[in-house]
Amino acid sequence: MGSTTSTTVPTNAELMEALAAVGGAYFQDFAAAAARHGLSSSQAKALGAVQEPVPMRALAGRLGCDASNVTGIVDRLESLGLARREASAGDRRVKIVVITEQGREILALIRGEMGRTHQAFESLDGEQRAALHSICLQVLPVLSGRTA
After folding, report:
1. Number of helical (H) and strand (E) elements in the chain, helices listed first
2. Which of 21, 59, 90, 136 is the most exposed place for a label (fewest CB within 10 A)?
3. What pTM was computed for the model?
């Protein structure tokens, strides 16, 4: 006898709950790994957001916080040698945040130490990984407000 499986299409609310649960678990794993290196999750997230030089105000937007909060975050990263501020070539009043080589190394360590996240991704086969990546790339521009 053949078996039939019916697929129930999740509602938007069910998708939102699943995404929030995955995002929350990922964030906890990230925050724990950052803490092992003496960083808050905001400081570690800032390192990830400045892979290319970024103006302070734009960094605030990427982190979803007020520009005044970014000053403290960048101050801490600078004091640890993980990032530095530079004056913008186009407007010397604008400060650009640049990750240092040490900052790149710490960020790589943090990402490498996210054990639960690695375990979750490693449980997926190649086709599932490709599908998850494709879906993330499809919804991210809409969620981030960067649609054309």
Report:
1. 7, 3
2. 90
3. 0.84
